[in-house]
Amino acid sequence: MRSLWIKSPLAIMADAPAGIVLRGGRIAEVLTSGQRPSVAVDEVFDASQHVVLPGLVNTHHHFYQTLTRAHPDAINKKLFDWLRALYPVWSRLTPESLRLATRLALTELLMSGVTTTSDHHYLFPGGLDDAMDIQVEEARNLGLRMTVTRGSMNLSVKDGGLPPDSVVQDEDTILADCERVIGKYHERGEGAMIQIALAPCSPFSVTKSLMCACGALAETHDCRLHTHLAETHDEDDFCTAMFGMRPLDYLEDVGWLNDRTWLAHGIHFSDDDVKRLGRHGVGVCHCPTSNMVLASGQCRTRELEAAGAAVGLGVDGSASNDSSNLMEGVRHALMINRLTYDASVSHLDALRWATQGSARCLGRSDIGEIAVGKQADLALFRLDELRFSGAGDPLAALVLCGAHRADRVMVAGEWRVIDGLPVGIDIAALRAAHGAAAKLFL
């Protein structure tokens, strides 16, 4: 087990001015002022020009949507109209276009400092049966940790749902593939690289029966649950009309109000809803950029955390964010939460949501923090661009001055980004191939 001393960082999100020692893919020592490693190390990395963060953790995304950024049919629309415009476009998704979309999203996330990500893939037009296998392969090739969510939709327009028939599957097909994917890929315990979660898309695209069945499967196989909830007032109205109850009551009715569950968006919760979420240990992924783009509303982050709920961050789909950059999302989270509350919302709050909070959403205690025994997942940023000149507090500068690209990123003790570029990826070739694939969706 080779050891590495990341020495004397410019700043670090821990009490470790002398740096940290990594060994065997974990953080072995956290060095306070004047300390040196307790034993000789194999290698030293001079971090005096770097701000060191725990690797960022992205808890909600839709990789396939990188193919339809700023799509002319969907810009300047609210959620339901945006979805109705794009569902027919997304029905053209193929295995090869999904592979390129996944590779590009993972690369973009990695370059922004993300070391662990989730993706909510719920779209299965004909011929895309191996979507989960494609995503696992791409994550492994790039070396990121990933919670691969086997998403689903089975409530189409003809049954009173929102999506067209061309992108949904029947319940038996969905559940069989959920079991297959869990059995083939789900890793348990500390240091897991690939984990599986079950993720029926939303109340307006899946049946109550499917929600209940996925909840039971997750209990049987010890995996997590994920869905969109309380994103817009339209969803409130749909749940009341379709199920005779509000979204959180529906979540409880199907057996999902528990600590296996984390929710995307979670905007329109009442005071009582917030208390219930905290009491039951449900996590909420705050998606600030997407919420602003679609004018969906503002997540009640302070109240949720005060109630005991985990609050994480997600970039959401690239067609409702138009970026897969979580460091940019950290800045957006700071800004919209200051607008929602006041200026006491700090850069440390936003960074905490993107690290420890997100890790809690994914049910992980081994990532999201720089501490002894945690996984060696790190994002290192330089402050030598013009945007940072004059900055006094390096950690605050990352957020307030708009850092968006890491100089170095490490996952499980291995450098995956060096000098701002992902190891083993031809960025120009990826851009060309993905761009050509995206033209087929116009």
TrEMBL record:
Record InterPro entries: Amidohydro-rel, Metal-dep_hydrolase_composite, Metal_Hydrolase, MTA/SAH_deaminase
Domain Amidohydrolase-related stretches: 51-415
Keyword terms: Hydrolase, Metal-binding, Zinc
Pfam families: Amidohydro_1
A GO MF term: metal ion binding
PANTHER family named among the record's database cross-references: AMIDOHYDROLASE-RELATED DOMAIN-CONTAINING PROTEIN, AMINOHYDROLASE SSNA-RELATED
Family classification: Belongs to the metallo-dependent hydrolases superfamily. ATZ/TRZ family.
Name under which the protein is recorded: 8-oxoguanine deaminase
Gene source species: Aestuariivirga litoralis
Lineage, highest ranks first: Bacteria, Pseudomonadati, Pseudomonadota, Alphaproteobacteria, Hyphomicrobiales
